[in-house]
Specification:
Blueprint: H1 3-11, H2 23-27, H3 29-32, E1 34-39, H4 45-52, E2 66-67, E3 75-80, H5 92-101, E4 105-106, H6 109-123, E5 132-140, E6 144-150, E7 156-161, E8 170-172, E9 174-176
């Protein structure tokens, strides 16, 4: 895995912030069926679609009801390499509880676009084709949630939806944020969160 060349190929320049995951954590990603994803600061969802060549059914700049997270900070996260989302036929409310109990976070539109581009570069195909994925990291309007996915023709679709909705073709994706701002001797042993790993990687917990 050559992170520098992958990021440069996707964005035209190397990452602006160092990766906060340790070499040990990066080395186990194959075993955990996960991958590293980088999201640059300030780049809009429309700009990312243009950069990656994604066709979309929505003008993200025009839809002011979509809320994003960490737009001013370049950041890294770990995501599952499953080609389909998990927790099918579970509402966004139920799935969010599962992820929060394990110290996991959710994607927003920008994180999802970065993930989809990295996934396609690695596997030669798009994720979530003919499935929808709840975006737990952002929100839609006051109390809604975004759902996103690629149709059978590879076109990206996005809609605002209800958090209590569930269906057999709608699932969720988690992300893991590093438990540190930077890798240093004092922070290298901090435990990251894992899917199914219980509470040990939560950002705040009782001893």
């Amino acid at each position: 895995m050559n992170m520098t060349s992958d990021i440069t190929a996707l964005y035209g320049s190397p990452a602006s912030v160092p990766c906060p995951f340790t070499q040990s954590e990066i080395g186990e990603l194959e075993r955990t069926s996960e991958m590293l994803v980088y999201v640059p600061a300030q780049v809009t969802a429309n700009e990312m679609c243009a950069q990656f060549g994604f066709r979309s059914n929505v003008d993200f700049d025009a839809d002011r009801l979509i809320r994003y997270t960490m737009t001013t900070e370049s950041h890294w996260f770990v995501a599952s390499t499953s080609p389909t989302p998990e927790l099918m036929y579970r509402s966004a409310v139920a799935a969010r509880r599962v992820f929060e109990d394990e110290g996991l976070h959710g994607m927003d539109v920008r994180r999802y676009l970065a993930f989809a581009a990295a996934f396609r570069r690695r596997f030669g195909q798009l994720p979530d084709q003919v499935y929808w994925t709840f975006l737990h990291g952002g929100s839609y309007d006051r109390s809604g949630i975004s759902i996103i996915g690629f149709d059978a023709h590879g076109v990206l679709s996005h809609h605002g939806w209800m958090k209590d909705f569930k269906a057999k073709f709608v699932g969720s994706r988690y992300i893991v944020l590093a438990p540190r701002i930077e890798v240093r001797p004092e922070t290298s042993e901090l435990p990251r969160a894992y899917r199914g790993g219980g509470r040990s990687g939560r950002e705040a917990d009782m001893d």
